[in-house]
Amino acid sequence: MAGLAETYREVWAAGGVARAGIGAAGAGAIRPIEVGGIAGGGLRVEPGDPKVSRGENYRGLPWVMLDYPRVFGREDVLAIRTMFLWGHGFNITLHLKGRFQTLYLGVIRERRVALGAAGFFVGVHPDEWRHEHTEEVYQPLRVFEGVLGEGGFFKLSAAVGLDRWAEAPELLAGLFTKLVEVLRPADVCG
User: Fold this and answer.
1) Which residue has the higher pLDDT, 146 or 11?
2) Rounded to the nearest 5°, which phi and psi values hold at 122?
3) What is the DSSP string of 31-70?
4) What is the pLDDT of residues 72-102, one digit of tens each?
5) What whole-number distance in Å separates Cα of residue 188 and Cα of residue 190?
6) How far apart are the C-alpha atoms of 93 and 41, rounded to whole Å?
7) C-alpha distances in Å from residue 82, one per residue of 99, 117, 121
8) 4 contacts: CB under 8 Å, gap ≥ 6
9) Which residues have C-beta within 8 Å of that of residue 10, sequence separation ≥ 6?
10) What share of the chain is helix, strand, coil (3-state, %, to 5)?
11) pLDDT tens, position by position, 11-21
């Protein structure tokens, strides 16, 4: 995961989302932005440092996860979490809540066809901390409209199975890049 963290940092920096903040007009300056018709109000994204965590019991299995970017507040969450669950493979998840959910939902709606084609599914489980790729937790993006805002959070996730172990770092980097593209619409920073 450490190597993946460095790759993610490079992709994030190249995407321009975090370095100067979303919609930055210069060093330290923040200006309001429009994303999907919703005023961003100068919402700033600082990705923090990549954080790798591990444990022995996520639904009875050992796990390792990488959070980057990771903005976890009481009411606002923006995180991309990459998780390896023993015996099940990898998943990469965009987790949005609060102002970040409001800010990006329109962009996600506009790009749902491309996201679905890239292998992303929408979270449908009421527990925002469930990560395994099962029908109970994730559904195809065609059910997108039915889950908007339910539970006060929104999640997009894609899985990379154990059968693709050798190419997992490259696939995960590609999926991360796709998520960064969603977080950086052309009309925001470009």
Assistant:
1) 11
2) -100, 140
3) ---EETTEE-TT--------EEEEEEEETTEEEEEEEEEE
4) 888 899 999 999 999 889 999 999 999 898 8
5) 6
6) 25
7) 22, 19, 14
8) 66, 82, 169, 172, 173
9) none
10) 35, 30, 30
11) 888 764 433 33
